[in-house]
Amino acid sequence: MITPSSNADDDYEVLQRFFSRGGSVRMLAGIDKCDMDTLYAYATQLFEAGEFEAARNIYLILARVDHWSFDYWFALGLCSQRLSGHEDAVFCFGRAGMIHIDDPRASFFAGISYRILGNDEYARTAFNAAMKWCGRQSQYEEIRKGAIEQLACCKTEEN
Predict the structure, then answer these.
(1) Cβ–Cβ under 8 Å, residues 67 and 24
(2) Exposure of 82 by Cβ count < 10 A (0-12 exposed, 13-18 middle, 19+ buried)?
């Protein structure tokens, strides 16, 4: 526990252990999950209304306060993608993918940004990963079909 009389090195070690064991700023500051959900719902409304910059700003705060949320990172990636910030989008989708590795959406949308950035090699890798994670899960059929279509559009080394 950090106390007024503790030294900076000890505080650093306590925080480092806390974050390395899955802690977040939300937990550290005691922010109620319900408050985070309210902000997320508002950001989603902004996103759906096409207010991508405003939504991105809220998603960015949410992702920083609770960096273990797939939904926050994924939504931030979608906003970045819509704002043509494809390098940022790839980073966000990568974070989301590390949190829920078995969700193919992060790989699929990262692949789209990689294609736009001209990195077809990484795009192919991302689309192949998305297809593997889709498997035969019916809720991801649209993603699987999209990944197949996107793969067909990727340039190969021979092209």
Answers:
(1) yes
(2) middle
Question: Which phi and psi (to 5°) does residue 94 adopt?
Answer: -65, -45
pLDDT per position as a tens digit, 17-74: 544 555 444 454 455 778 778 999 999 999 999 999 999 999 999 998 888 899 999 9
Quote the longest CA-to-CA distance of the chain: 65
User: Within a 10 A sphere around the Cβ of 118, how many other Cβ atoms?
Assistant: 10
Asked if 154 and 120 touch (Cβ cutoff 8 Å), the reply is yes
State the residue for tokens 């279509």.
149
Sign of the four-CA dihedral 115, 120, 122, 127: positive
Written as six digits, the tokens of 32 are 């109620």
Single pTM value for the model? 0.81
Query: Which residues are CB-contacts of 73 (< 8 A; sequence separation ≥ 6)?
Result: 63, 67, 92, 93, 95, 96, 99
Residue 38 to residues 24, 69, 82, 158, Cα–Cα distance (Å): 18, 15, 23, 50
